[in-house]
Write a sequence for this structure.
C-alpha cells in the first residue's frame, strides 16, 4: 500500500513539472506544411454592421480581403443587406483561422479600426466583446457609468490599456477588447465592476501593485493577498425611512379570532333579552350619569379661577436707597485717594510751557 502511494505521489510531481511552461517559450503555430490536405468541410460566418460604418468598410475592405487571402479565406461585403461574410475554401490549411476571421468582422462592425482589428490573426491575441447594455436598467445611470469607464479625455481608458496591454473600444452598448488572454480577463472584470457601481480606479490600483510584484522573482510562488488593497463598499441607502415602522408578527397558520358583533355583545351582557321599554330606560339612565360627570368636571374647571396662588416664603431683597441719604465717610475716602494720585502727563507739560513762556516774555 505504501509503495502504491509513493508511485502516485511521484506521478503527481511529474505531472506538475510537465505543466510548468518554461520562460520565453512561445507556441510555434501552424504552417502550410503541417496541413497539406487543407480542411475537409467549408465553414462560413456572417455579421451585420450599422449604416454609419459603411463608408469606412468600403475603404478598408480591399485590405481585409488581402490579409485573409493569405490564409485562403473568402471575404464578402454586402452593402445592400449591411452584412459581412467570411468563409473557408478548399485551399484553407489553418483550421482555426475561420474563427479569427469571424472575430475580425465582429470587431470591424463594432467601430474598431482596421489597424487594430487585423491583430486578431496573431496567435497570442484574442478579442472579447462585452455587452454592457443589460447590466444597468436606468438609462441615465448607464450613461454616467459608461462615461466613468472612459474617464476625462479618455484618461481612465488609456490607463486600462497600458496596464492590461489590450486595445479597448467603448461603443454604444458594447465594450470591445483586443489583446492577450490575461489582459482580456482583467478588462472584463474592470468593465463589469464599473457597471456595478465600483469605480475603475480601485481595479487600476490593484493592477499597478500586481505589475510591481510580478517583477520580484522571490514572490513568484507566494500569495499576493497581503499586498493587495481591500476596499469595502460604503453604499448607504438614500431611501427615506418611514416614521412608523411596521413590525412583522410571528407567522401562525391559524386565522385571527373573529371580532364580536353587536348582537354577540348584547347576548354576553344579557341586554338582548330585555324589552324595548327596559332598554330605553337603561339608555336614559346612562345618559343622565354622563351628564352628571360632565357637570362636575365643568364646576371644577370654573372653581380653579377662584383659587388664590401660593405665596413664596423667601424674604424680600432690600432695595438700594437712593436720594438725599449719602455716605459721608466713603465719599471722604474717595476724595483722599484722588488727591494722592499723580497729575497726568498732559497737565505737567502744560504747566511747564506756561512757566517757561511767561519767564521768557518778562
Amino acid at each position: 500500500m505504501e509503495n502504491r502511494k509513493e508511485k502516485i505521489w511521484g506521478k503527481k510531481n511529474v505531472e506538475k513539472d510537465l505543466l510548468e511552461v518554461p520562460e520565453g517559450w512561445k507556441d510555434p503555430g501552424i504552417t502550410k506544411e503541417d496541413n497539406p490536405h487543407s480542411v475537409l468541410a467549408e465553414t462560413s460566418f456572417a455579421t451585420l454592421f450599422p449604416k454609419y460604418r459603411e463608408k469606412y468598410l468600403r475603404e478598408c475592405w480591399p485590405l481585409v480581403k488581402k490579409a485573409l487571402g493569405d490564409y485562403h479565406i473568402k471575404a464578402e461585403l454586402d452593402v445592400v443587406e449591411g452584412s459581412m461574410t467570411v468563409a473557408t475554401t478548399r485551399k484553407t490549411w489553418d483550421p482555426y483561422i475561420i474563427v479569427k476571421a469571424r472575430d475580425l468582422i465582429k470587431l470591424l462592425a463594432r467601430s474598431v479600426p482596421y489597424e487594430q482589428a487585423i491583430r486578431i490573426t496573431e496567435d497570442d491575441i484574442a478579442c472579447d466583446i462585452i455587452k454592457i447594455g443589460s447590466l444597468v436598467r436606468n438609462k441615465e445611470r448607464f450613461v454616467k457609468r459608461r462615461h466613468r469607464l472612459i474617464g476625462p479625455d479618455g484618461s481612465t481608458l488609456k490607463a486600462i490599456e497600458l496596464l492590461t496591454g489590450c486595445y479597448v473600444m467603448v461603443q454604444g452598448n458594447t465594450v470591445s477588447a483586443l489583446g492577450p488572454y490575461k489582459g482580456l480577463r482583467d478588462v472584463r472584470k474592470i468593465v463589469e465592476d464599473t457597471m456595478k457601481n465600483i469605480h475603475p480606479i480601485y481595479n487600476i490600483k490593484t493592477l499597478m501593485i500586481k505589475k510591481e510584484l510580478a517583477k520580484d522573482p522571490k514572490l513568484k510562488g507566494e500569495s499576493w493577498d497581503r499586498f493587495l488593497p481591500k476596499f469595502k463598499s460604503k453604499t448607504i441607502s438614500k431611501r427615506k425611512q418611514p416614521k412608523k415602522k411596521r413590525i412583522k408578527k410571528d407567522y401562525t397558520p391559524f386565522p385571527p379570532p373573529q371580532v364580536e358583533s353587536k348582537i354577540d355583545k348584547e347576548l354576553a351582557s344579557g341586554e338582548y333579552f330585555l324589552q324595548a321599554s327596559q332598554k330605553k330606560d337603561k339608555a336614559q339612565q346612562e345618559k343622565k350619569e354622563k351628564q352628571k360627570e360632565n357637570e362636575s368636571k365643568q364646576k371644577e374647571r370654573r372653581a380653579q379661577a377662584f383659587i388664590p396662588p401660593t405665596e413664596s416664603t423667601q424674604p424680600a431683597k432690600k432695595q438700594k436707597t437712593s436720594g438725599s441719604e449719602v455716605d459721608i465717610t466713603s465719599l471722604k475716602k474717595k476724595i483722599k485717594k484722588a488727591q494722592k494720585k499723580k497729575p497726568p502727563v498732559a497737565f505737567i507739560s502744560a504747566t511747564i510751557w506756561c512757566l517757561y513762556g511767561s519767564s521768557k516774555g518778562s
Summary: The domain at 33-123 is CATH 3.30.1370.10 (Ribosomal Protein S8; Chain: A, domain 1). The CA atoms of residues 57 and 278 lie 102 Å apart. The chain is about 45% helix and 10% strand.
